[in-house]
Write a structure and sequence with these properties.
Arc Repressor Mutant, subunit A, 10 strands, eight-stranded mixed sheet, Endonuclease, Chain A, 264 residues
């Protein structure tokens, strides 16, 4: 019997092998259908199918090939590994900034997430992505260790126009940072007084910035200097559940925002 790593190498050396195994694991395929789906020659398919048969991964069923139970097991494992590697490649440039210990979900749930990073032509692309979502949403829930000027202005405009509901739990340090700027402090107090907005303050640290805009979850990723390095957004149900439950937990233990506390 081949060692597991050798079997992995056997599959990885040929894209056709991976495709054929996944195809026959999904449903029976004739050699003609396999050729149409993969573009492989009949000679190549013959070798692949014989190699698979030698490993008891496929068997003939009339005029078609089907995966055996172990062949389907291998196909599932390959699909999982490919998905993991695709997710890893997507997160590779931002993983150093992710507070993974505070992210209560499997990173594999970010497989379908959109990652927006700065570029030379669009250095503010991550923030712009989030601002666009905030401007379009009917309802926003957020918990964060920071609130920047653009986000504050966007939310205040929509809330004051009666076009948006806004709930946020901010860390005490985020409130203090806004209180240090008279212009931003005035905007925050105006927002907090507006119908449709409610802000609470959490004494304990909030390790990351999360926004839920009409059900889509946005994660804002910053470096140690507080500079925004990426935004990730996803409609994954598991991440949405985590974000909603975390917000509710923070909300229940936070105090209503009282400007006087920070002005004394």
């Amino acid at each position: 019997m081949e060692a597991p790593l050798e079997e992995m190498e056997f599959l990885a050396r040929s894209k056709n092998r991976v495709e054929v195994l996944q195809l026959v694991a999904a449903e029976p395929h004739s050699r003609r259908r396999l050729a149409e789906a993969t573009g492989a020659s009949q000679a190549t398919l013959g070798r692949i199918l014989q190699d698979f048969a030698d490993r008891s991964w496929v068997e003939r069923d009339g005029g078609a090939y089907v995966a055996t139970a172990t062949g389907a097991l291998v196909a599932d494992g390959v699909a999982d590994l490919l998905s993991i590697l695709e997710t890893e490649a997507k997160l590779r440039d931002v993983v150093a900034y992710l507070p993974t210990d505070a992210m209560g979900f499997d990173l594999r749930r970010l497989a379908d997430a959109t990652v927006t990073v700065p570029s030379r032509t669009r250095p503010s692309a991550p923030l712009q992505r989030v601002l666009e979502a905030m401007d379009d949403a009917d309802s926003l829930q957020a918990f964060s260790h920071t609130l920047n000027e653009q986000s504050l202005s966007t939310v205040r405009t929509r809330v004051e126009a009666g076009e948006q509901a806004f709930e946020a739990v901010l860390s005490k340090s985020a409130i203090r940072a806004l209180a240090a700027d008279e212009r931003l402090w005035d905007r925050l107090r105006t927002l907090a007084d507006a119908e449709g907005a409610e802000i609470r303050v959490r004494e304990e640290k909030i390790p990351l910035a999360v926004l839920v805009a009409d059900g889509t979850v946005y994660l804002l990723v910053r470096d140690d200097a507080g500079l925004l390095q990426a935004s990730l957004h996803t409609d994954d149900e598991g991440i949405r559940t985590w974000a909603t439950e975390t917000f509710e937990r923070y909300w229940e233990t936070a105090a209503p925002f009282d400007p006087a506390v920070f002005e004394s």
